[in-house]
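Request from the bench team (R.T.):
"We need a structural guess for the complex before ordering more zinc ion. Sequence and SMILES attached. Just send the tokens back."

Command: build protein-zinc ion structure.
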Amino acid sequence: MESCKLLLCGQLYDGIHDELFSDQQILVEGSIISAVGKNLSRPKECQVIDLSHLTVTPGMIDAHIHSDLFDWRDYSAILLKSETWNNLGHLHTAQRTLERGFTTIRAHALAQGQGYGLADVKRAIAAGYFPGSRMVITFHMLGTAGGHADASQALMLNPRLAEAATQPFIGAGADFFRQVVQKDIKYGADFIKLFISGGFSTPGDTPDNTYLSDEELQAILSTAQGMGRPTTAHVYTPEHMQKLIRFGITGMEHGSLMDEETAALFEQTNTYLVPTFCPYDEIIHLDEAAMAQKEPHFQAKLRKYAQQLRQGREIIANSKIRLGYGTDFVAVHQCYESWYEYRSWMRSGIDPFRILRAATSSNAEILGLQDKLGTIQPGKLADLAGWQRDLLQDEEALSECSFVMKEGTIYPSLMEQAR
Ligand SMILES: [Zn+2]
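Reply to R.T.: structure attached below.
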């Protein structure tokens, strides 16, 4: 007989309703949720797990993690590390996020180089050789020389060294990018990520610079679409976002300089946005101590765009855009501390149920896993998390995960390990 577990929940958020339900039980058989409700009949030899002190939610999903970082302070030196080291970083992150109740992560590699080792990390976890969050992966940051995707910018004072460190997915021309997309998908990419513009954390570009041409953008989008993979984009300005929507992209990351017109376009087309709020909090609610931890060029850009970032945050918060939950930490916080984003959304005045939906059912949809994950319903995989703090009032509630189940198996949570 398959293993059977009956979970007694204090409260339950199901990923669907804006409501916490009391006295609910979840019956898990093997890796699957087989029933949810009050007073379920318990099959013989079914293990009872008392979570009556916790709020149980679907396993959380972080849709934007740079999982190759062991420690955010290593960010500027990432090109100096071997690919093996960076791949071990992915594994380390997936272990830490699982303990924290995030049973699935969308991993955006920062420095994958020539190789495709991230796919092996994903496979090794899926095969059960290591505990870790389920991974949905992209290998490469598709962009041009000098753009945000080009990490060798960090070495730009020594062009010879920078050229040697330039990664093979940095290039130009529609054909070049078509081939990168084809190979990435061949070796296991679940989605493709393009970098249309500059960014905040790189030294030599700005969020409103344009790096990929229309021809290159269309080559990336149509090649990925033809091979059945979604594309997401690193993007900030209304002009860039509107162009990508016109070109048929299904979703984007950041969008931090949002305006009303573009927000309306997102709503009309049901395009998703993973707004990655937290990395901009230090400037939005000015925190000089946290700002001081970022590199000088990073700080200067945040200060320059401060007003637009504040406006964009407000427009996104007040919109009806389909939002996904993602953290994008490469500075100040460790990449696996996904709970900070919850606090950031709460401080931006967003309803906690909208945040919970973003981190569960909306993210499952964004990742194309809505048939298996994101809600607590019969037939779904038993990915669950339990929280002792008040999810509706306490902005740090997700910092203390007390129960983790992935595909019916219970893993030690952060709080259990701390005991
Ligand atoms: Zn990112």
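Two things stood out. Residues 64, 66, 108, 328 surround zinc ion (CB under 6 Å). The chain is about 35% helix and 20% strand.
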